[in-house]
Specification:
Oligomer: single chain
Number of helices: 14
Largest sheet: 8 strands, parallel, barrel
Strand content: 5-15%
Radius of gyration: 20 Å
Strand order of the largest sheet: 3-4-5-6-7-8-9-10
């Protein structure tokens, strides 16, 4: 069968998927987190400004899918539309439900700790610290590992590097278990420009490392989402022994995970939401020492990832959820806060072609049928 795409272009879908069966056993050579999206409730009577209405059954089923392939789940992160439709009340419930589900199936999980319960407008540094403390306590009470996320409120309140050093130092001293520090670049959230006290990335890196060097026993690892492979490599070579570097680089992840003679990155990636089974299969080849096969499996996925994360990068979630719908992980293409409208028809068509070419859809015929329906709704007759 042929799909008629916009402007009369034809596409011939593949007929067989990669058919990567769930494995279950954890990965061993790398620690790999997939940041996971939330599934909206399509029948809720809400507006884009309403609190998120979440389909909890479908949302948790997707996490079980990731765990079944041996991946860990990074919960309530930006992939879950944290700060872009999912407020703290929704994130809190998501953390509680997902952490409980992780315990029931033996899945690994880490959850985002932020300050998004603060009201709009300026906050003081003590208010920012208290907000972080509240969320850290909640995550730790569930038994999940905490991810200290970059905070818009801290970025606005901090007067310079010393305020980051004081805030993070306070939080790390009281954390009961080592946490993951998250450096999210402004391409993912413009409000985080100048994080760590300077728009100069070299200066910001020094402050970031100073935080880690002062509390290495309280830092499990760092997630770096700057889309700059060389900067990440330089940073990971300076980390204290025992502190992991989790790549958040959705442009260069194969080479960063594969590593070099001086080390490698683990992973905490939004692109591993749609790539979950294939990513797990690739890392299992690293578990056997076969770096060549790893690259052969994962390198072809970079074109799709760079497409989904193209500027404005923060809207990558739309493509992620679109592919989840085509893959049959949810029954609809609806997102909280109406974010399903954030990418164009040509963008989503290209995402379908690239994902189909990789064999990512477990049922190619279902994906084809849904794609044709989507195109027809946009006036592209089949």
């Amino acid at each position: 069968m042929t799909i008629r795409l916009p402007h009369g272009r034809a596409y011939e879908p593949r007929t067989e998927p990669l058919a990567l069966a769930p494995h279950g056993a954890p990965l061993t050579s790398r620690t790999v987190y997939s940041a996971a999206h939330v599934v909206a409730d399509p029948f809720a009577d809400v507006s884009p400004a309403s609190p998120a209405a979440v389909d909890w059954d479908a949302t948790l089923a997707f996490r079980r899918h990731l765990w079944s392939h041996g991946l860990a789940v990074a919960e309530a992160m930006d992939t879950a539309q944290r700060g872009m439709g999912l407020d703290w009340a929704g994130a809190r419930e998501l953390i509680r439900r997902s952490a409980a589900e992780a315990k029931s199936v033996g899945g690994a999980i880490a959850c985002g700790v932020g300050t998004d319960q603060l009201p709009p407008g300026e906050s003081t540094l003590p208010e920012v610290t208290a907000a972080y403390e509240e969320q850290l306590a909640l995550v730790e009470s569930t038994g999940a590992r905490a991810i200290l996320m970059a905070s818009r409120a801290l970025a606005a309140a901090a007067g310079g590097p010393e305020d980051y050093l004081a805030t993070y130092g306070h939080l790390l001293r009281q954390a009961s278990e080592p946490v993951i520090l998250h450096w999210l670049g402004p391409m993912f959230d413009p409000a985080l420009d100048g994080y760590w006290g300077s728009p100069d990335l070299d200066a910001a890196t020094e402050t970031f490392l100073e935080v880690i060097d002062a509390h290495p026993d309280k830092v499990d690892g760092v997630k770096v989402s700057l889309l700059d492979a060389q900067r990440e490599i330089g940073l990971r070579r300076r980390l204290p022994k025992g502190v992991r570097c989790y790549t958040g680089d959705d442009y260069n992840y194969p080479e960063l995970i594969a590593g070099d003679d001086h080390g490698f990155s683990h992973a905490l990636l939004g692109i591993f939401d749609p790539l979950g089974p294939l990513a797990a299969e690739a890392v299992r080849t690293l578990d056997t020492g076969d770096a060549k096969k790893f690259r052969e499996l994962l390198d072809p996925t970079v074109e799709l990832s760079r497409h989904l994360f193209e500027p404005p990068t923060r809207f990558y979630k739309t493509g992620v959820v679109f592919l989840a719908w085509l893959a049959g992980h949810q029954s609809h293409f609806t997102m909280v806060a109406g974010l399903h409208s954030a990418r164009s028809l040509p963008h989503l068509c290209r995402a379908y072609e690239l994902a189909d070419g990789l064999g990512l859809f477990p049922d190619p015929l279902l994906a084809e049928t849904r794609m044709k329906t989507f195109l027809a709704l946009h006036g592209v007759d089949q």
